[in-house]
Write a structure and sequence with these properties.
single chain; Rossmann fold; five-stranded parallel beta sheet; about 10% strand
Length: about 200
């Protein structure tokens, strides 16, 4: 089974993925893959530096994600930030999609169950790679609280971050994550059991 997991930042996508990982699922995280693509001197790294300048680099030539984030999630310049984010996605998305596709093929041939975690579901267009899609939902104020606590960002930055994130209208499954952790992980495990029985 290849399951896409999506949801707006702070909904609990990664918590759901970790519950599946404990059951033996292979988890592919689009955000982590994108961050790994920033390694110095790779094609993505070169594209980012060319587009945004050497000012986004640390002294050791790694990309400073905080500095880059201030450009693409700049609450003081919403339109400029939107344009910058579109440019960044144009640089990173082809690599992320190719990496996810190659990894899916490798593990699927082994008979593994695979979960693909992605916030920008529509942007990355991964529907063709996943057999089913799970949407994680949570109350907006709870999503923001979780993300602010995790990342130490302002409300304005959070709102900028989620502006490009939309919930798919037709998920195969949806799980609410506005209650307790035990209730949520049990719901994920129940769904996993159902999917694992599909041959």
């Amino acid at each position: 089974m290849i399951l896409g997991i999506t949801g707006i930042s702070g909904s609990g996508k990664h918590t759901a993925a970790q519950a599946l990982k404990k059951r033996g699922w292979v988890v592919l995280d689009a955000d982590k893959i994108a961050h790994n693509s920033y390694r110095p001197y790779t094609s993505v790294w070169k594209g980012v530096v060319k587009e945004f300048g050497e000012g986004v680099l640390n002294e050791n030539d790694t990309i400073n994600r905080v500095k880059l984030g201030k450009i693409v999630f700049n609450a003081a310049d919403p339109e400029g930030a939107k344009s910058a984010l579109e440019k960044l996605n144009k640089i990173t998305h082809p690599y992320v999609k190719r990496k996810i596709k190659d990894t899916i093929h490798r593990y699927f041939r082994r008979g593994s169950n695979i979960a693909v975690v992605v916030a920008l579901w529509e942007g990355l267009k991964l529907r063709t790679y996943c057999e089913k899609m799970l949407l994680i939902k949570a109350k907006p104020e709870l999503r923001m609280y979780r993300t602010q606590k995790r990342d130490g960002i302002s409300e304005e930055t959070y709102q900028m971050r989620i502006r490009s994130q939309t919930e798919p209208k037709d998920p195969h499954f949806a799980i609410e994550n506005s209650g307790g952790m035990k209730e949520f992980t049990e719901a994920v495990s129940t769904l996993a059991e159902k999917l694992e029985s599909v041959k």
